[in-house]
From TrEMBL:
The keyword Cytoplasm does not apply. One of its GO terms (cellular component) is ciliary transition fiber. This is Centrosomal protein 89. It comes from Nothoprocta perdicaria (Chilean tinamou). The keyword Aminoacyl-tRNA synthetase does not apply. GO terms for biological process: chemical synaptic transmission; cilium assembly; mitochondrion organization. Residues 150-226 form a coiled coil. Keywords: Coiled coil.
Amino acid sequence: AVPRTPPPRSPNPSPERPRSALAAAILATTLTGRTVAIPQPRQRSLSESDSACVEQECFEPYATVAQLRMGPNWKLDGSEESHIQSLEISDNYCEDEEDMDTYLSDKEAESSCHSNGKRGEDISIRSRKAWGTMTKEKFRELKQENWTLNSACQALAQRVEETKQQMEELLLKLKSLEKENRKLKEASEMQREEEAAELLSLREQAQELVDENDALKMTVHRLNVELSRYQTKFRPLSQEEVKFSKCSFAPEVHIILFKILQIT
């Protein structure tokens, strides 16, 4: 017999795969003595779950060994021994075939892993491209939004500067108005003080005039009293009194009276 060289294993350990359908059928026939139907060969494109399902399937025999034998005293002859030897040889062949299937399945797994890796790389490249496109679009949108915000910020800054200038102008006007109001208050206070002083002087003058008027009134009253006394004391003689005096008194008396009147 030729020594069997085990096929090279993949670096990635793969899960244990089921035996081939042919080897399973021959082994079942040898052990149980039942003749079973050989199913169709397994397709290479089946997945591991499909192979597990195939392993779990039960194949019904076309006929049992008891039905094929002639009787209970049936013994094995040379042909049957040769048949058993051929079954052993076929079993060895099936084991070789199983190893080859394992090798091929490992190769298929490696190729599938390689294809899956390539597919994953393609997907990652596509995702990177899509992510780059989305990032570029997002960057463009953010740039546009940033430009809009910068424009709005510049407009607001210009409005703030204009408002500051207006506030400074208003503050200058307010200061000038306060200064003018202060001057007006000082002028009004000074005018009020002058008016108060003038009013006081006018009151003093009026009081002086009142006092002078009172003095004049007293003087006039005194003069009137003196005049009335004088008139009463030195009243002139009437015609009757003159006639009486001429008749009753001597001329010397008349002359004396006239002199007294002149003296007074």
